[in-house]
Structures are given as C-alpha cells and as structure tokens.
Specification:
Blueprint lengths: L2 H7 L16 H13 L3 H9 L3 H12 L3 H14 L7 E7 L5 H14 L4 E6 L3 H4 L19 E3 L8 H17 L4 E7 L4 H6 L4 E7 L4 H4 L3 H6 L2 E5 L6 H16 L11 E4 L8 H18 L1 H28 L1 H15 L5 H16 L1
Bound molecules: guanosine-5'-diphosphate.
The site of guanosine-5'-diphosphate has 14 residues, from α6.
C-alpha cells in the first residue's frame, strides 16, 4: 500500500507540524503523587463532612464516583459512618424534557429556599452524559445564582457507568450531602428515558415539569412518568402563554383523576409557574410541604424510604450476580457454542439458559 493511501485509511492521523507532547507528563505524575498524599483517612473525611466542610464533601463524592477499588473501599466506609447522620431532609426529584425550564426552575425554587435559610444540594442524573462524555446537566453556566449561593451546593452528574451504577452512586451522594447538613435535596433528570424510574426510587417527592400546548407526544412524556408524579408543574406560564397554561392545568387535573389512587394517599396536584419570572414558586413549595406533612403523619414517608433501601439492596445483588455470571470463565467458554445451538434451533433458549446456570453454579461452589 502506498504511503499516501495508508494515511488516508488510517484513523490515526498525525497533523504535520504540531509538536507531540511527551508520553511522560511530569505535571500529571506530580498531581497523582500529591493526590495520594492528600487522600485523607476515613475518620478525617467523616469529621470534615459532619463539620459541613464542602471541600471535603466534594472530595468524598469524587471517591464515591471513582471506579478504583481503593477509592470505592474508602467511600463505602465513609458512607457507613455518615448513614446515622443522614436522612434529615426532603428529597425531591425534578424531571422534564430538555428546554422545559428545569435549570431555571431549580434556580428559582432553589433561591426561594436558600433565602429562607434552607441548605440545598442539587444533584443530577444525566443519561446522555455517557454518550457525550460531557454532562449537559453539569454545564457551569446553568443556575448562575445558585452556583454562587453559600446555602447551595451543585454537583453535576457522575458521568461514567450504567444507569444503575450512576443511580446507586447518586443515592450514596445523597447520604453524604445530608450528613453534611443539606436539608433539601434536588435530583434532576432529563425526562426522556429510563432515568426517571431510577430517580423516583430515591426521592420522597417527584415533580414533573411540563409545557402548555405542546402535547404529551411532543414532550416525550410517557404515561408511566405522569403516574409517578406527585405534582405536575406547567412552566412558562407567562406572557402570551398564560391562558394556555391555565387551560393545561385544568386538563391535566382532569387527566390525573383518571389515574389509579396512589399508595401514599396523596392526590397529585397540578400547578402553573413561571420559573423565569419567579411566579407560582411559593405555591409549589406549599404543595411539597403539604405532601410532607400528610405522608409523615400517615407514616408513608418513612415507609417509602425503607422500601427504597430494600429495593437498592436487591438491585445491588442482581447487578453483582449478573456481573459475576458474565465474567465467569466457564460461562464465557461455553457461550459461543450454546449461542449457536440456540440460533440453529438445536436446543431451546430455556434449556440453554439452564445449562449455563448449572455450569456456573457448579463452578462457583
Ligand atoms: P432545561 O433544559 O429544562 O434545563 O431548560 P432551561 O432552564 O435551560 O430553559 C430553557 C429555555 O426556556 C431558556 O431559554 C429559558 O430562559 C427558558 N425558560 C425557562 N423558564 C421559563 C419561563 O418560566 N418562562 C419563559 N418564558 N421562558 C422560560
């Protein structure tokens, strides 16, 4: 192959004239050495978090997000010790399609709360971040006021791993934030996929932001997500949109009445707001407070949290089991021929699964 052709076909093009950096980066090496030296012991982490030290909280969250076994080990010990100091908060999930106004809403409701002295942590589950390698929810220009508010702490989404993994980490980050004195937790997610269910399983109150007149189809909101909502908030109820928003409020209220009764005994509410003009924000907070009072009185609030813990336990078992099965060398070696047998109709899928499972269990016991 000629040199020219080779270059054309190669994915690895080196632009002429640009000096290539040395493969040994002394700055990165020094940084690594420094970070190893700076890795606090578990007690110092826990003390820092309980002292509401944000720098230490951020470092602990970085450990939770890390996939290095040493970091995970320390992170788990920190979480264990923080657990007894966590839980004293209201956890609110906020979802809606891109452009509905989530960050503007979080900024408005967030400022309303921090002005009253609440300590707010804003976390995010961003399903797109793995694909784009850059978290849209972590964009620094969003939530400009909150990001410099002493009573608020904004942490972008952990950007690596499966949704299940990211969700588990977010749950652990909630524990750390609560131990660090945050009494209000927002978990934001883009309402386009699976992540709502994950968020729903870690919050007390689930808020769905919508727009008037956009049609549910267009908003990509599935009925299942509407059924999960404790409140539907129609945003951008301002200017020419105000009347449409009021009409949508009536329509959604009627639609919600057709949904099955919720386990909490709470009837989901519909409200309008303008996150931009900061109108309707107080009313929405009132709804959340009403929910909290009702469900705490009935005990549902605490029951739901316990059930969420159990769910996490079972999901962790399932995830670990499935990973162990996938990585088992006997299973791996059997898989190609068994797959072929299923594809050619030699054995049934059920029998194939049984054979693989039998070999797996024989191999691990
Ligand atoms: P996100 O993608 O859901 O986080 O939405 P953003 O908060 O980034 O808002 C998307 C766009 O809608 C921005 O241009 C906002 O200025 C605008 N927006 C957000 N809230 C309102 C509102 O209450 N009224 C109006 N008119 N525009 C809004």
């Amino acid at each position: 192959m000629s040199e020219k052709k080779k270059n054309k076909n190669s994915a690895l093009k080196v632009n002429k004239g640009i000096e290539q950096p040395s493969s040994f980066n002394p700055d990165a090496w020094n940084q690594l050495k420094k970070s190893r030296q700076e890795l606090l012991d578990v007690d110092s982490f826990v003390k820092g978090i309980l002292d509401h030290n944000r720098t230490i909280l951020s470092k602990a969250i970085t450990l939770v997000e890390s996939s290095l076994p040493l970091h995970q080990k320390i992170a788990q010990e920190i979480i264990e010790q923080c657990l007894p100091h966590s839980g004293n908060s209201i956890r609110i999930g906020i979802t809606g399609v891109p452009g509905v106004g989530k960050s503007t809403f979080i900024e408005s409701l967030g400022k309303y709360l921090t002005n009253q002295g609440n300590k707010l942590a804003v976390l995010a589950i961003d399903p797109s971040s793995e694909r784009t390698k850059g978290s849209i929810l972590g964009d620094k220009t969003r939530m400009e006021e909150l990001s410099v508010d002493a009573n608020a702490y904004i942490r972008p989404s952990p950007s690596a791993g499966s949704l299940g993994g990211v969700a588990r980490k977010t749950k652990e980050i909630i524990v750390l934030c609560e131990a660090a004195g945050f009494d209000t937790i927002f978990v934001e997610t883009v309402g386009v996929g699976q992540s709502e269910t994950a968020v729903h399983s870690m919050v007390d109150f689930f808020l769905l932001l919508m727009l008037a007149g956009a049609g549910d189809e267009l908003q990509g909101i599935k009925r299942g997500i509407m059924e999960m909502a404790d409140a539907i908030v129609i945003n951008k109820a301002d200017g020419d949109n105000l009347q449409k928003a009021k009409m949508a409020k009536r329509e959604y209220s009627n639609a919600l009445h057709l949904f099955p009764l919720t386990d909490s005994g709470w009837t989901p509410m519909v409200e309008t707001c303008s996150a931009r003009d900061k109108s309707g924000i107080e009313e929405i907070w009132d709804i959340i407070k009403q929910y909290q009072t009702l469900t705490k009185e009935s005990g549902y609030f605490f029951q739901q949290r316990k059930e969420q813990e159990l769910k996490i336990m079972f999901e962790t078992i399932k995830a670990n089991f499935s990973e162990s099965f996938d990585n088992n060398h006997i299973v791996k070696s059997m898989l190609p021929s068994i797959e072929n047998d299923v594809l050619t109709g030699k054995i049934s899928a059920y029998k194939a699964a049984q054979e693989l499972l039998d070999s797996y269990f024989k191999n691990i016991s």
